[in-house]
């Protein structure tokens, strides 16, 4: 009888344990679908890839992108390789595909070399756009352009011509030889120089500092040594113009070799105030990144498809329209802005 009683007790206890385990498993299963649902309805992931680290212009652009994505309740993933190469960007693209981000915004280090990786990303359902430095039309849905490239090239030639009195030797200090935006601006500069009014100006060389400070300094020094009659330098890169400003200042060449191009007010204020660089141009890189963030979001949400005529609101940068850009499309922000002694003090505190 005692054995029978113990058997019954043991059976009851065993059933209790099994029931408790069953309830625990049931609770776990109900939480798992809830978690999956939370993932499905969670933040969208928007990635931004700049050309390389240590570039103040790129840092400002990423700040603007992150600002926009936060306004849109998304998650901004900001990446940049140590060196401005396509190969380094490809590694980052592959990583982002694995992370299953919703969009990739990229300032390309090469217009064509990134195509296989970016095509793979688009095939995986990732919305791809380029900004600042475009990749080819097959590698992206659309491009966000900081300003009219023709105007960017033209105003820099107009500036250097006025600075040197319309005659003499000039050189261009660019970023990398594969930089799409730089090459397009230089192409428009060369077309502008074909006009009769510039017949006494000779473009002696296009040098490349790879958007690296030390190399840009070396390239500027080489230009001055190779062309002792050089009258002006155009540097359509924020890294390059700051490097050239330092070299001209250190060598006491203010007023002898003129400087203009595209620069950050915060970095170029001293050179503009001293007269080493009488004036220069740029746009607000924060706004460029910000507009790119809204463009990426509009694509992810399905508000636009990147086709000519598509329209959307880009936050504080206002209404934007997708327009034709060769074989592809683009969104354009505006005209380049002139920075000079009269306004540099107020702008150097902004960016």
Topology:
Elements lengths: L1 H39 L4 E5 L6 H16 L3 E5 L6 H14 L3 E4 L8 H9 L3 E5 L10 E4 L3 H15 L4 E7 L5 H14 L7 E8 L4 H14 L3 E6 L2 H13 L7 E4 L3 H10 L4 E4 L2 H17 L9 E3 L5 E3 L1 E3 L2 E5 L4 E4 L3 H4 L4
Parallel strand pairs: 1-2, 1-3, 3-4, 4-5, 5-14, 6-7, 6-8, 8-9
Antiparallel strand pairs: 10-15, 11-12, 13-14
Helix pairs in contact: 2-10, 3-4, 5-6, 7-8
Structural class: alpha/beta
Estimate nothing, just give the exact number of structural domains. Answer: 2
| Fourth-tier CATH superfamily name of the largest domain | Response regulator
Order of helices and strands: HEHEHEHEEHEHEHEHEHEHEEEEEH
Note the total helix count: 11
Q: What overall form do the CA principal axes indicate?
A: elongated
| Cα-based radius of gyration, to the nearest Å | 28 Å
Task: Give me the CATH architecture of the largest domain, please.
Answer: 3-Layer(aba) Sandwich
Uncertain ranges? 1-39
State the separation between the terminal residues, measured CA to CA.
Answer: 90 Å
Percent helix range? 40-55%
Please explain how this structure is put together.
By secondary structure, this protein is an alpha/beta fold. The chain has eleven helices and 15 strands. It has helices at residues 2-40, 56-71, 86-99, 115-123, 149-163, 180-193, 213-226, 238-250, 265-274, 285-301, 344-347, and strands at 45-49, 75-79, 103-106, 127-131, 142-145, 168-174, 201-208, 230-235, 258-261, 279-282, 311-313, 319-321, 323-325, 328-332, 337-340. The strands form four sheets. A seven-stranded mixed beta sheet has the order 2-1-3-4-5-14-13, sandwiched between helices. Strands 7-6-8-9 form a four-stranded parallel beta sheet, sandwiched between helices. The longest helix is centred in the N-terminal third of the chain and has 39 residues, at 2-40. Residues 1-39 have low confidence and may be disordered.
């Amino acid at each position: 009888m005692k054995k029978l009683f113990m058997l019954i007790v043991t059976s009851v206890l065993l059933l209790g344990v099994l029931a408790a385990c069953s309830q625990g498993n049931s609770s776990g299963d109900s939480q798992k679908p809830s978690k999956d649902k939370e993932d499905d309805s969670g933040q969208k992931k928007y990635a931004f890839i700049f050309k390389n680290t240590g570039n103040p212009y790129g840092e400002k652009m990423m700040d603007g992108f992150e600002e926009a994505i936060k306004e849109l309740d998304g998650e901004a993933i900001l990446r940049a390789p140590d060196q401005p190469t396509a190969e380094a960007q490809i590694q980052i693209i592959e990583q982002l595909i694995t992370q299953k981000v919703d969009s990739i915004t990229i300032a390309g280090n090469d217009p064509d070399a990134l195509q296989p990786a970016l095509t793979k990303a688009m095939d995986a359902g990732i919305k791809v756009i380029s900004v600042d430095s475009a990749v080819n039309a097959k590698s992206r849905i659309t491009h966000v352009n900081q300003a009219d490239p023709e105007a960017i090239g033209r105003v820099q030639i107009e500036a250097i011509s006025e600075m040197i009195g319309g005659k003499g030797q000039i050189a261009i200090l660019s970023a990398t030889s594969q930089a799409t935006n730089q090459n397009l601006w230089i192409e428009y500069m060369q077309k502008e120089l074909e006009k009769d009014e510039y017949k006494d100006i000779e473009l002696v060389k296009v040098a490349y500092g790879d958007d690296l400070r030390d190399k840009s300094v070396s390239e500027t020094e080489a230009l001055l040594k190779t062309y002792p009659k050089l009258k002006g330098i155009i540097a359509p890169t924020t890294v390059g113009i700051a490097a050239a400003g330092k070299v001209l200042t250190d060598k006491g060449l203010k007023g002898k070799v003129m400087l203009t191009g595209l620069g950050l007010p915060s970095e170029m204020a001293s050179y503009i105030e001293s007269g080493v660089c009488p004036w220069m141009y740029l746009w607000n890189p924060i706004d460029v990144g910000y507009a790119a963030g809204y463009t990426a979001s509009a694509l992810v949400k399905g508000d636009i498809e990147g086709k000519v005529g598509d329209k959307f609101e880009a936050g504080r940068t206002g209404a934007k329209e997708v327009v034709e850009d060769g074989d592809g499309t683009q969104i354009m922000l505006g005209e380049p802005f002139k920075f000079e002694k009269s306004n540099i003090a107020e702008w150097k505190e902004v960016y």
